[in-house]
Amino acid sequence: MSGVQAEWPLYEIFVRGKRGLNHVHVGSLHAADDEMALRHARDVYTRRNEGVSIWAVRADAVAASSPDEKDPLFAPAGDKVYRHPTFYAIPDDVPHM
Amino acid sequence: MPHVHDHDADHESVYDGLTGGDDSQWAFGTDFEDPLAGVDTTIAQGVDASALAAYCLMLGDDALVYSHRLAQWTSNAPDLEDDIALANIALDLLGQARLLLARAAAADPAVVPALPDGSPVPPEDALAFFRDEAGFRNVRLVEPDNGDFAVTMARLLVFSTYRLALLERLRDSNDPVLAAIATKGVKEVAYHRDYAGRWFLTLARGTEESRRRLLAGLALVWPLYDELFRTHHVEAAAADQGFGVDPSGLADEVGVVLEQVLTTSGVERPEIAQTGAVNGQTGRGGRHTEVMGRLLAEMQVVARAHPMGLW
Amino acid sequence: MTASPQVSAGDETELLAAFDAVIERHERIEPRDWMPERYRSTLVRQIAQHAHSEIIGMQPEGNWIARAPSLRRKAILLAKVQDEAGHGLYLYSACETLGVSRDELTRMLIEGRQKYSSIFNYPTLSYADVGTIGWLVDGAAICNQVPLCRTSYGPYGRAMIRVCKEESFHQRQGYELLATMMRGTDEQRAMVQESVDRFWWPALMMFGPPDADSPNTEQSMAWGIKRDTNDELRQKFVDMSVPQAKALGVTFPDPALVWDEDRGHHDFGQPDWDEFTQVVKGGGPCNAQRIAHRARAWDDGAWVREAATAFAQADA
């Protein structure tokens, strides 16, 4: 991984649009820490709409199980929502990896 | 095989979604029209209309010029998330500027620059784009170029701390329009201060490089600090008549808030000579820094080329 | 460090059959599904190119934020360019589900190893261009993108639904700006026509080369990544735009543009494909400038991103 600076980790963002509803996954973003993730989520996904509840969860902290998805590459214990950037060869020749 | 035949239906429904009237995902999409539409603009008893207009220009110009600067970060920020955040702040301030300029024009039409007969340019735009530099009443703090992200965060922290203290008091204005603008603005500017404070702390404690840049940024911004609390005679009148705030009364509160952020960040309050006045006048009196003329030249160029233009 | 997934030939056949069955049923492929390596790399290429287009596309319009001629237009334009940052962000996130980080994608853009839409290598030279980009460029983008809301890869399709909703607003604001200017002065009307003349051909190029010269189209359509051919979309765009131009009171600079009763479509001339090739290869009017701008912003921001990382780690 030489030459790659530490990228801000990926967060999954869940928003509850109004009281009485569940939080719903709306997308992801990068942030250095939890507080920045919430702030960014407010700017990016709610356009600073007051009164909206936001959860920000680090993507690598989400345990996932999806029997439907045919993936032989992950042991169940190491299952994550997203593939890891270094797991596959990048298309093209990428000198930095 | 239920999925085979929904091909076209699916396709159409997506187009329907595009042309439907729901703009709720577009936070700013429904709010671009006449900023004072439907608002009662009657002036309270005992309020001098020309003083009210002059005061609205001061607060409006602060927001307009600073919004212009912050918007220059667009496509230049350290990451996409902060590009979006800075644009949000610029949009908030632009919204405040529009309301305040429109209020100024409604209170005293004499402040609006004359345009050719039949010009469709609305008053808020006549004020923003056809006023000469000496007619602008913003503090000089908002004028200089952005500099790097550290300078930007230092200035945003100082400006938003000042403006939040001001708007909190302005909520009690006896001018209902100013009170309403302030009530809305407090929520927005509280967020701006929060954003800047968090970044200030992050840069102060991040790396050696970020700390060095932050200290240099604060030193660049600081010489225009005291001007924020100088009372112009319009501001004194505004406070006397109950529609505005005397900025000299904000100095302590702003100082305390900044001190908290500086202490948490391990940063000393700069001891730097303050930028002087020109024959006793500063930004509120229409005396600006050298970059102001270039800022306005760029901002006004298209509008001024088309005084009869419809946009 | 790159781990190579070890899958036996027998497994692969079975996995491919399952994958094909999902595509066949018009269902979505999700990030953790097995997928053929070429499907993955084609998606990475297409989504990244799309994300880069949004981010580079901020520049030509951002060029006019400081000079917007009314406060209302300034607010609209700033919000629009901000949306494009958001679209880029959604799309980079979709691409990240395929195992490529945003840092890596940005580096590939800056180093010229991935492309973006050639339209953004044209300069914006008057305020009317803001309107024309909204109307024609975003309009062409919508033609390209609406079908992608049903693309076979789930995260891409979901990102596109958000993007398309906002793009429709963009197109409307562009058209509304031009319509307003057309009600203004003679100079403004001339400005609109000049801008439309300048952007018409580049807008047609946005659909890519003619089908006969589009090497990736067939496989992409089979996989449900792409839903219509370049020429089909281009025809649709021309048919859509002609009545809009008429309502606006402008013309398109194409003498061959005429309604064909038999086909039920407009006939139209071909863009200068040599110019297209030149722009795609880096020789357009603004290629170097756009990349240099993006590289500068990215490099200038490095110390900020590092500071936040250092702060978060010290804080943790």
UniProtKB/TrEMBL annotation, chain A:
Record-linked InterPro entries: PaaB, PaaB_sf
Family annotation (Pfam families): PaaB
Entry superkingdom: Bacteria
NCBIfam families in alphabetical order: PA_CoA_Oxy2
Protein name: Ring-1,2-phenylacetyl-CoA epoxidase subunit PaaB
Organism (species): Nocardioides psychrotolerans
Taxonomic lineage of the native organism: Bacteria, Bacillati, Actinomycetota, Actinomycetes, Propionibacteriales
UniProtKB/TrEMBL annotation, chain B:
Pfam families membership: PaaA_PaaC
Coiled coil: none
GO cellular component terms, A-Z: cytosol
GO biological process, one term: phenylacetate catabolic process
Tree of life domain: Bacteria
Gene3D superfamilies: 1.20.1260.10
Protein name: Ring-1,2-phenylacetyl-CoA epoxidase subunit PaaC
Species the sequence originates in: Nocardioides psychrotolerans
TrEMBL record, chain C:
Gene Ontology biological process terms from the UniProt entry: phenylacetate catabolic process
GO-annotated cellular components: cytosol
GO molecular function: phenylacetyl-CoA 1,2-epoxidase activity
Secretion signal, residue range per the UniProt entry: none
Domain of life of the source: Bacteria
Gene3D superfamilies named in the record: 1.20.1260.10
NCBIfam families: PA_CoA_Oxy1
UniProt-recorded name of the protein: Ring-1,2-phenylacetyl-CoA epoxidase subunit PaaA
